[in-house]
Design a protein that fits this description.
By secondary structure, this protein is of the alpha+beta class. A hairpin with a 4-residue loop joins strand 4 and strand 5. Helix 5 crosses helix 9. The chain has a 5-stranded antiparallel beta sheet with strand order 2-1-3-5-4.
C-alpha cells in the first residue's frame, strides 16, 4: 500500500504549516529546512506556486500522485466547482472521515486503524483507507476494538460539533456522514483553484 513514509517535520517546515498535526520541530524552527533555510528568500514562479499547492494537498491528505490525479479527473467530470469537488472527494475518504470523527489523532493513525480492520462502515469491516464514504453511511469502531487505548486517548475531550457534515453517536463510537462538506466548512488551508489551474496547463 503506497504512502509517504519520509520525514514529516521537513515537509511541514517547507510549507510553514503543521500539515501532519502538531509538530515540535516546526514550533522551534518555523523556516525552510536545509543549511540556508533561515536565510532563503522565497522566490517562486506562478507554476512553482501551483505545484507547491498541489504538493501540500497531497501531503495533507496522505495521497500519492497517481491517486491524486485520479481524484482530480473524477472531480472534473462531476457537476460543480472542480476544486471544491476535489476537496470533497478527499474529505470523503474513509481514513479522513475516521480522523474527522476524532477516532484517531492524525490521518496517518486513522489510515492504520482502517488497514488493521478496526473500522466498520454500516457494520461491515472495511480495510481500504481510500474507500469513499457515501452520505448516510455510518463509520464506527469495530466492537472488539472499542477498548483500544489510542482510540480512547484521541476521543478524550474531542469536539464532535466542529464538523457539521458528520453526526457523532456515542453509542456506536462512530458517526454518520451526513453530506459532502461545503468549502467554507473544510478547515484546510489549500488554494484548490491553483491545483485546477496546474492540471489544466
Amino acid at each position: 500500500m503506497a504512502r509517504y513514509i519520509g520525514p514529516k517535520s521537513r515537509i511541514a517546515r517547507r510549507f510553514g504549516e503543521a500539515i501532519f498535526g502538531p509538530d515540535k520541530v516546526l514550533s522551534k524552527r518555523n523556516f525552510a529546512p536545509g543549511q540556508h533555510g533561515n536565510n532563503r528568500r522565497k522566490k517562486s514562479s506562478e507554476y512553482g506556486l501551483m505545484l507547491a499547492e498541489k504538493q501540500k494537498a497531497k501531503y495533507t491528505y496522505g495521497v500519492l500522485e497517481r491517486q491524486f490525479r485520479n481524484l482530480f479527473e473524477k472531480a472534473s467530470t462531476k457537476s460543480g466547482v472542480t476544486g471544491e469537488v476535489l476537496l470533497q472527494l478527499l474529505e470523503s475518504r474513509l481514513d479522513n472521515v475516521v480522523y474527522r470523527l476524532g477516532i484517531a489523532p492524525t490521518r496517518a493513525a486513522a489510515r492504520q486503524l482502517v488497514s488493521h480492520k478496526h473500522i466498520v462502515v454500516n457494520g461491515q469491516v472495511v480495510n481500504i483507507p481510500s474507500y469513499t464514504v457515501q452520505p448516510g453511511q455510518v463509520v464506527s469502531v469495530r466492537e472488539k476494538s472499542k477498548s483500544l487505548e489510542v482510540v480512547d486517548a484521541s476521543l478524550a475531550g474531542f469536539n464532535h460539533s466542529k464538523y457539521p457534515w458528520i453526526q457523532w453517536d456515542e453509542n456506536v463510537k462512530g458517526g454518520t456522514f451526513l453530506h459532502m462538506p461545503e468549502r467554507a466548512d473544510i478547515p484546510e488551508n489549500i488554494k484548490e483553484q491553483m491545483i485546477v489551474e496546474l492540471y489544466s496547463k
